[in-house]
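Problem statement: downstream parser choked on a complex file, so we are re-checking the raw output for the iron/sulfur cluster run. The parser issue turned out to be on our end (a line-ending mismatch), but while we're here, posting the original submission so the record is complete.
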Amino acid sequence: MAELTQQFKEFASNAGADLVGIAGMDRFAGWPPERSPVSIFPDAKAVVAVGRRITRGTLRGNEEGTNFNTYQSFGYHWLDNEFVALTVFECVESLEDGGWEAVPLFPFPPEAWPQGIPVRPDMPAPNVYPDFSHVAVACGLGEIGINGDLLTPRFGPRQRIQLILTDAPLQPDPVCQSRICQDCMACAESCPLGAISKDEFDDLTIAGKTMRVAKIDYEKCRSCQNGACPNRYHQAGKPDRLGAVCNRTCVEALETREILAESFQNPFRKRNAWGIDQIGNVTELPVEPASSRESEEGE
Ligand code: SF4
Ligand code: SF4
């Protein structure tokens, strides 16, 4: 099992995966059937979360407020539809070349359930869509931050995840024990629409790991003009927030504190962040670049 797992991880890395995490099926005990990977492949032995990074430069046009299409293409649509999907498909082919069945899963929004009729009385209606961020936590890739998004020790919020269910007996990775979110509330402070609560939180437990997550008004996120994108598969789905000012501020917060394994020669935020409020006014947000904070502290 260890050798098969190592060979699989090496193959995934060569196929472009930046992140690979594996969970045994016992980690999904108690999940609602309409959200559980077990419902999709009851005989699976492992769930694999495969991730590729959203490159930091992909966020640059959003950060400067001058080019949103680069992120929408290379950070969202093409990254998911082509780059991650290709990596996942090659991994699936590799497993099936070895005689193991492997189911690739694409991140359709779980909020779109149900879309069909249960085919047996004890089964959920199709289509079962797990929450990929939650599955990624179960697979050991990271945690859900205060901002409600997946944070990993290497990239913070900068990645896209897809899944593979397989009957290959792959060795599970441990659930991530390191603390990534710093509870700094910079994401909430930066949101021009006040969508992330600063004083109301829920505890979220996944595979025995409990995380504090702020209450988030996703209706506000749906109208956000600060780098968020509508969910491209279903209007009921949560909007994509990874390029929005809340998550760009999280990138800055985690890099400044040197929490992330991936580091850069120059700071991410070079100027005060910009924001657009609910009626379209452009404001300067109370979110300064780290470099200006450091120079003030040095005076
Ligand atoms: S997506 Fe927009 S509205 Fe939602 S939390 Fe982020 S900045 Fe605020
Ligand atoms: S900005 Fe701070 S509080 Fe918000 S998710 Fe990132 S690290 Fe956590």
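For whoever reads this later: The pocket of iron/sulfur cluster (ligand 2) is lined by residues 145-147, 181-187, 249-250, 253-254 (CB under 6 Å).
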